[in-house]
């Protein structure tokens, strides 16, 4: 693979990582809005959690009411396919289209930069076969980004990128 092909591949992966981060952020913002619009979810948190009201906004608590997919463009459109694919790669949406946190109060965790890195969901509705009452999610590591970047860095260190 030539240097320009590696750089192009590296930039493609970098762009994909940034888009995935954007779509993750948008999904959790959507969940937060759904929580703010749901008296049911707010009542559940008020009755079952020991969280002061002033911290609820700070924690960015959300509610997954299974409507995210209805608010994303159809999968047949380029934009819809991109968003849905991104959310599937990240594990927030299953290949069937079902949301990982469906029926859950969702509390995201952020890193020092404010990027969402993980979340925990507490199911508030009935449990179906195979459903867990607590759902954990961790943002996948951008392994492709690391692999391509390391290969490029090794070539730079060995002077091969300057030919």
Description:
The protein has a 4-stranded antiparallel sheet, covered by helices on one side. It is globular and about 60 Å long. The protein has a single domain, classed as DNA primase DNAg catalytic core, N-terminal domain, CATH 3.90.980.10. With about 160 residues, it is α+β, with helices and mostly antiparallel strands. The two termini are about 15 Å apart. It has helices spanning about 5-35, 40-50, 55-60, 80-90, 145-155, and strands at about 60-65, 105-110, 115-125, 135-140. A hairpin with a 5-residue loop joins strand 2 (about 105-110) and strand 3 (about 115-125). The model has no long low-confidence stretch (mean pLDDT about 80). About 20% of the residues are buried.
The CATH superfamily title? DNA primase, catalytic core, N-terminal domain
Number of strands: 4
Q: Tell me what the CATH architecture is.
A: Alpha-Beta Complex
Mean pLDDT across residues: 81
Provide the spatial order of strands within the biggest beta sheet.
1-2-3-4
Q: What's the structural domain tally?
A: 1
Structural class: alpha+beta
How large is the count of helical segments? 5
Q: What portion of residues is helical? A: 40-55%
Rg over C-alpha atoms, rounded to the nearest angstrom: 19 Å
Helix/strand order:
HHHEHEEEH
Question: Kindly, what is the distance between the CA atoms of the first and last residues, rounded to a whole number of angstroms?
Answer: 13 Å
Low-confidence stretches: none
Main sheet characteristics = 4 strands, antiparallel
